[in-house]
Amino acid sequence: MPAKLQLRAPLWLLLLLLLLPGLPAAQGQGAVASAHPMATEAGIAVLADGGNAFDAAVTVAAVLAVVEPYSSGMGGGGFWLLHRASDGFEVMLDGRERAPLAAHRDLYLNDQGEVVPGLSVNGPLSAGIPGQPAALVHLAARYGRLPLAQTLAPAIRIAREGFPVDEHYRRLADWRLQQLLQWPSSSAQFLVDNQVPPLGAIIRQPQLADTLSRIAEQGHDGFYRGPVAQRLVEGVKAAGGIWQLKDLAEYQVVEREPIRGEYHGMKITSAAPPSSGGIVLVSMLNQLSQFDLSSYSPVIRKHLIVEAMRRAYRDRADYLGDPDFVSMPVARLIDPDYAAGLARDIQLDAATPSRHRPPGSLTEGHDTTHYSIIDAEGNRVSATLSVNYPFGSCFVAPGTGVLLNDEMDDFSARPGVPNVYGLVGGEANAIAPGKRMLSSMTPTFVETEQGVAVLGTPGGSRIISMLLHGILSLDAGEGPQAWVTRPRYHHQYLPDLIQFEPGALSVEEQQQLQAMGHQLKPLDSTYGNMQALFWNREDGRLSGASDPRGIGETLVK
Ligand code: DON
Fold first, then answer.
1. Mean of the pLDDT values across residues 472-476?
2. What is the model's pLDDT at position 366?
3. How many alpha carbons fall within 13 Å on the CB side of residue 223?
4. Which of the four pLDDT bands, split at 50, 70 and 90, describes residue 27?
5. Ligand 1, atom nearest to 437 Cα
6. Average pLDDT over residues 403-413
7. Ligand 1 atom closest to the CA of 96, numbered from 1
8. Looking at the structure, do residues 127 and 184 belong to the same domain, yes or no?
9. Is 399 a domain residue?
10. Residue 283 Cα, ligand 1 centroid: separation in angstroms?
11. How many domains are contained in the chain?
């Protein structure tokens, strides 16, 4: 070969490789979809300043902790699903809360062995040891490019200067007003004159700003050791909780291998235990791949989807918990052959009754939060974070500005007794010292032939079925706006009923489903707050959408 050609070959090869699909080629700086415009804008600014998706993920989570205190925060936890473009490495950061070391399986039972109402959802006894601060420090140190001083700066500034109250805030503060009023530290931070703040009132959180600054300066230890840890423990104990300094000192983020599955050639990557999300999602999709959904009428299609939900949620109740404490048949649960077995007794014209257990008291969830980020290099983050109920436990540890979660309610307080989302569980999800409570949070990636979707949502037990609806919409060729907008329906095995949003089932469909033996529960409001992005690898275009049910914003730059 002539010398000239030998020299040119690598350049020619490089150009060809750059044109091949699958290589990082997102146009512009990237995209962020989150539940609050201030968080989305701060995330985009970090991308513009040279940060990668992981840096932006730190910023977005921290700003959400300030402006959406009812959804997530430094006193809560979550799951961050990461994809690194340079080598395709994928991991789930498990920043889930843990039960305090002084917790025990009967923590919420009275002398008669009955669950004491409210104990696992209100006040400091309901709070698990927070994971979000540890997760953000880990995310920045291991995957980010910028210092925490830079990525936490927007949250610190907004905590100090304040943010204006919107309708969503007012609604949720009103819903939790009585509990917020229990604690002077909480009412001072979130209410005005002990009332729901008026629209546009400015909420300033100087103590939270100080706590965030300590984390920016000292990293992990800024929260889990020293004065912040001390104040957290003192505050919790004085108010009847059971935290100890060693609970905080021992907290560690865990890197977990995501759950993977396939549906119609799409590659699903999703949350691993202690989230039930990925397993239940893949199980539902595996069951549905036994049917050619497009060949059935809309009502039969819905019936089949409900039956797949029923079976996957039953396995959730029976098998799933913290992988560090219980052994679970994960490989089996996500095996297509196992799902084929589950689907075998689905009848086309009749509901399969769930085994009888007491019906749960389903509540409407509007808290927890999700955001999705893709940067120009193709790095991506899908993160769902939570303090559980709106405003978590409603308890702010005095002097810290940190609102504590009430994630302890996600444990099964007693086998078969439903939690606030109507979910039942057994031994696998019983309380134990240091154990992580089972979650439904389902941050997910879906890779199609054309590109990559990054999506997730809050919504308690309904999170996983919302992801299913989103993925079925993607499979039907629809875009992000449809994934986040489609009316939703849900079944979780127990209670044995189909809950549905206004407009999700026509009157005729409702009659037909009832005739098949389904019980229906029409909801008077909508649920969920999905944030979704799509990166079309064919043309490099990024697009996305924020759920019209919330106040979120998607920006593509
Ligand atoms: O981890 C879980 O499954 C729950 N703590 C999530 C709560 C939630 O999504 C509430 N939102 N509406």
1. 98
2. 61
3. 29
4. low
5. 1
6. 97
7. 1
8. yes
9. yes
10. 20
11. 2
**In terms of domains, do 188 and 158 share one?**
yes
Question: What angle is formed at CA 79 by the lines to CA 99 and CA 306, rounded to 5 degrees?
Answer: 95
Ligand 1 center to 540 CA (angstroms) = 33
Distance (angstroms) between ligand 1 centre and the Cα of 128 equals: 14
Q: Evaluate: CB of 307 within 6 angstroms of ligand 1.
A: no
**Residue 545 clears pLDDT 70, i.e. is over it:** yes
Query: Do 208 and 267 share a domain, yes or no?
Result: no
Q: Domain for residue 541, yes or no?
A: yes
Residue 365: pLDDT band (50, 70, 90) is: low
Active site residues: 368
Instruction: Tell me, yes or no, whether 409 lies in a domain.
Output: no
Relative to the CA of 365, which ligand 1 atom is closest? 12
Q: 502 and 394: one domain?
A: no
Taking only the tens place, the pLDDT of each residue in 185-212 is: 999 999 999 999 999 999 999 999 999 9
Please tell me the number of Cα atoms within 13 Å of 90 on its side-chain side: 20
- Domain identity same for 478 and 338: yes
Q: Side chain identity at 65, as an amino acid letter?
A: A
Confidence tier at 359 by pLDDT (50, 70, 90): very low
Supply the residue whose CA is at minimum distance from atom 2 of ligand 1.
Answer: 439
Strands in 380-386's sheet, in edge-to-edge order, are 254-256, 90-95, 77-83, 380-386, 369-375, 30-34, 553-556
Q: Quick one: how far is CA 72 from the chain centroid?
A: 10
410 lines ligand 1 (CB under 6 A): yes
Do both 396 and 458 map to the same domain? Answer: no
Query: Contact, 468 vs 285, CB < 8 A?
Result: yes
For 138, the domain range is 27-253+377-404
Q: Whose CA is nearest to atom 11 of ligand 1?
A: 459
* CATH number of the domain where residue 519 is located: 1.10.246.130
- Please tell me the distance between residue 518's alpha carbon and the centre of ligand 1 in angstroms: 26
Exposure of 271 by Cβ count < 10 A (0-12 exposed, 13-18 middle, 19+ buried)? buried
Q: Is residue 180 part of a domain?
A: yes
- Indicate if 199 and 261 belong to the same structural domain: no
Q: Residues 284, 240: one domain? A: no
Over residues 243-270, mean pLDDT: 98
Task: For ligand 1, say whether the CB of 440 is within 6 Å of any of its atoms.
Answer: yes
